[in-house]
Design brief:
Blueprint (H helix, E strand, L loop, with lengths): L1 H11 L7 E6 L1 H12 L4 E7 L10 H9 L4 H12 L2 H5 L10 H13 L7 H13 L4 H11 L4 E6 L7 H11 L6 E5 L6 H4 L1 H16 L3
Parallel strand pairs: 1-2, 2-3, 3-4
Helix pairs in contact: 1-2, 3-7
Length: 218
């Protein structure tokens, strides 16, 4: 998938040094690591969100088994909500005012997604989960990645209450990339896996700060 992404950005013409501001969430963060590993000199900034260098003692496989068991969406939703979001966010009034709670909005979004039977399939989800489970970047590979990208260009964001890819994964990723050498680590207390929904303003501010900072780096 990283090579697919590379083929696309090459076709678009984004080939200059330090041109790419890469943001990867969850499995997208794994793809972002692979992409940065392939073309480190083209990376202007690398933001890795709710992701891991490798999955260790994770509930991801359990989640895969749970969603693979045939059952109604109503039966799946409570488990899905608990793994992806903090309870406080789910119970809070809808950020956009269209639904009673944020949890109700997510349920409506999930229902709409599941109605696209060609775009959302059980096979597709299982393949995604397997790909995430196979992703593996060793400490040595992460060091090489950070050496070549530049640690001041890298940040790791993770929710402390992430029940999909737990926070120790984010802490390990930041440490092995080189937190002490300049990699930024941000742990958002009390938030879950989907930071761009739970903390959308903070999320945008963090990304903007990194982009502005790295535009001025040599």
């Amino acid at each position: 998938m990283a090579k697919d992404t590379l083929e696309l950005i090459d076709f678009i013409g984004w080939t200059s040094l330090r041109q790419l501001h890469i943001v990867g969430v969850s499995m997208g963060g794994m793809i972002a690591q692979e992409l940065a590993f392939i073309i480190p000199q083209r990376v202007a900034s690398l933001s890795l969100v709710s992701t891991a260098a490798r999955l260790v003692n994770t509930i991801f496989e359990i989640h895969l088994l749970v969603v693979s068991i045939p059952k109604s969406l109503d039966a799946q939703l409570p488990d899905l909500k608990a793994r992806m979001f903090s309870q406080s966010w789910l119970e809070a009034p809808d950020d956009y005012g269209d639904f009673p709670t944020n949890g109700d909005r997510f349920a409506a979004m999930e229902l709409e997604k599941r109605q696209d039977v060609k775009g959302f399939t059980e096979k597709g989800f299982i393949c995604q989960a397997i790909a995430a489970g196979w992703h593996h970047k060793s400490p040595e590979q992460l060091k090489d990645l950070a050496d070549n990208v530049c640690r001041q260009r890298i940040q790791v964001l993770h929710g402390s209450s992430d029940n999909m890819i737990t926070v120790p994964h984010g802490e390990t990723l930041a440490r092995e990339l080189g937190e002490e050498g300049g990699v930024t680590k941000i742990i958002v207390e009390g938030r879950g896996h989907v930071l761009h929904l739970e903390e959308h303003r903070l999320y945008q501010e963090v990304l903007q700060r990194m982009i502005e900072k790295t535009e001025n780096l040599e």
